[in-house]
Design brief:
Layout lengths: L3 E4 L13 H22 L10 E4 L8 E5 L2 H4 L5 E10 L6 H12 L7 E8 L5 E7 L4 H6 L2 H14 E11 L10 E9 L6 E6 L4
Helix pairs in contact: 3-5
Length: 207
Amino acid sequence: MDEVIRLQADAIVAGRPFTAPERTAEDLDAVRVMAAAVRHVLRQPLPAGPRPLVLTVPAPAGRQHRVVIAHEGGLRVGRDLAFVGFFATKRGGLDHAPLTVTDDELILEFPRHPGILSYSSLEFADGNWGNLIVVDPPEAREHWREGDKHAWAAQELAPRHYTVVRLHRGVFPGGLLAGRDPVVTRTKYYDFQGPAPWQAERELAPP
């Protein structure tokens, strides 16, 4: 996946509708839902004990929604916080249990990555999932990405189990508890449907 195509802000790649800006808007709606759940959790008394703390929170239509709190103190700061949003479409006809196993293993590694503050997973009506990772400082996402488990998941597991992926980087202006609208600053697109992986990137203006 050597060549990365650079997309303009409003571009849609022919034959790849998942690159439409409207899909980013839909993803942001899910980010808002997950962020609101984290804020709700932070307003409640949290049990003492080791972190990460894994919680199940209500979601519409019986869907699953999990919030993992790794460092609640970092989530309460009153300055910009970076986030990563991961949205993917699963391949049909596969046993996706390895995705769940790997996800649980990555959560167990959070103590090795102190910059990861929270991790949310929201199930959609079509059976796909969205993930929201809040990090501080922003460089913490690279530290996690370069870990052996995450690198293996991205390079081996994702192409095997997903057809397309959207990976957003963004900011919660003023912090998560400020409740302001999240801002996407960059989106990477991956398409694993063809004989060779395809990748594009859309750089947006910083907030």
